[in-house]
């Protein structure tokens, strides 16, 4: 089992210009993980997680966007053991499906996963490092979305999720 905090944002681009009015937002994640040994010191890491991501846009009106996802990372990496201590590294991909969320600009509120804002599906790279002591695990990692999550497909406008995580877990 694991739980932790997220610091997420999006990278937004219009053509070659990067939007600089987007700020990160704090969220959380929780889930169950499975570590499978596939070779000496090599593991396949997977999990099912509920995660809350988001971002804030500083425009003429301040807009906050929150998005809850069911996320499935699948990674591979070495895990080094030193007595009761372990140090796992992992890299791979994730798929996330949007469950719910709200966007608010101070005067109105709408569904995050609507035709007005974000698509429900996201896919990207994930990686991280951890340290374990007996049954306790601590980790940090990052995610970079590869999919343009904007619902309206405009030729020159793209938006991709970016997320940094810190977790604590317990192995059964």
Provide the helix percentage: under 10%
Number of helices: 0
Q: Give the termini separation.
A: 8 Å
Show unreliable segments.
Answer: none
Question: How would you sum up the global shape?
Answer: elongated
| Structural class based on helices, strands and sheet pairing | mainly beta
Report the β-strand fraction as a percent range: over 45%
H/E series: EEEEEEEEEEE
Q: What's the alpha carbon Rg, rounded to whole Å?
A: 17 Å
The whole-number mean of residue pLDDT values reads: 94
- Neighbour order of strands in the largest sheet: 1-3-4-5-6-9-10-11
- Number of strand elements: 11
Keywords for this entry:
eight-stranded antiparallel β-barrel, 0% helix, 76% strand
Brief characterization of the structure:
The protein has 172 residues and is mostly beta strands. The protein is 0% helix and 76% strand.
Note the topology.
Elements: E1 2-14, E2 17-18, E3 22-39, E4 42-58, E5 62-82, E6 85-100, E7 102-104, E8 109-111, E9 121-133, E10 136-145, E11 157-170
């Amino acid at each position: 089992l694991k739980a932790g905090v997220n610091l997420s944002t999006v990278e937004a681009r219009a053509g070659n210009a990067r939007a600089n009015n987007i700020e990160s937002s704090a969220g959380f994640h929780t889930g169950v993980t499975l570590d499978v040994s596939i070779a000496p010191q090599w593991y396949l890491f997977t999990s099912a997680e509920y995660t809350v991501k988001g971002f804030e846009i500083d425009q003429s009106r301040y807009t906050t966007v929150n998005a809850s996802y069911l996320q499935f990372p699948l990674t591979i990496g070495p895990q080094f053991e030193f007595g009761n201590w372990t140090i796992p590294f992992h890299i791979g991909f994730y798929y996330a499906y949007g469950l719910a969320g709200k966007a608010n600009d101070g005067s109105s509120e709408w569904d995050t996963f609507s035709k007005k804002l974000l698509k429900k599906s996201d896919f990207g790279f994930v990686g991280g490092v951890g340290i374990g002591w007996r049954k306790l695990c601590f980790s940090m990692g990052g995610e970079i979305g590869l999919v343009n999550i904007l619902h309206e497909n405009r030729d020159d406008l793209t938006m991709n999720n970016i997320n940094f995580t810190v977790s604590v877990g317990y192995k059964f």
